[in-house]
Amino acid sequence: MLAALGALHLEQPPGSTYAYSNVGYICLGRIIERISGERLDAVARACLFEPLAMRSTTFWSGPALHPPNAGALPSSLEPAPLSMGDGGLWTSVSDLLLWNAALLGDALGISQTLHTAGRLDDGTPLDYGWGVRVVREGALLVQSHGGAWEGQTAKLVRLPDRYASFAVLACDSSVDRIVALSSALQDALA
After folding, report:
1. What is this structure's pTM?
2. How far apart are CA 174 and CA 176, in angstroms?
3. How far apart are CA 128 and CA 160, in angstroms?
4. Which among 82, 100, 106 is positioned nearest to 154, based on CA atoms?
5. Which of 111, 119, 141, 181 has its CA 20 to 30 A from that of 129?
6. DSSP-assigned states of every residue in 95-135
7. Of 62, 67, 57, 29, which is closest to residue 156 (Cα–Cα)?
8. Average pLDDT for residues 66-87, to the nearest whole number?
9. Radius of gyration of the chain, Cα coordinates, nearest whole angstrom
């Protein structure tokens, strides 16, 4: 099969650099589906959402523009994103705070692994763990992840040294505004 793809060109040798990739999360979602024999939304519901009582959270890939019982997005945001793994998560601030509390308290037994930052092959440390940015800002440990889709932005932040967290969701494309708001909230909690 690889021969049919022709010569593959890599921008950098594996292990020599880091770059965020939405495609990687789509592939991870498909791997989970193949291994489990279930759809990603069913696996996430059984292993994450139900145990944490995240009743307003689901993965949704369509074809309807939004999941049943979810509020519709403004018509300017149609159609709904159809990929899952890199997106497709429908949730609420309340459920995201349940997720944060579970990670702060290690309710799922995955917090240490999730927040272990990677290293390049030459030993260079990265500020990214398993889907989470992990940095020290001054004396404060910050665990965060943000994202954007056309007309939507989100940021999730945990401050484990303070046992504090917050989530910001907005129906606009202003990543700069979400970053500024998140920084101000983080400073207030520091």
Report:
1. 0.86
2. 5
3. 16
4. 100
5. 181
6. HHHHHHHHHHTTTTS-HHHHT---B-TT--B-SB-SSSEEE
7. 57
8. 72
9. 18
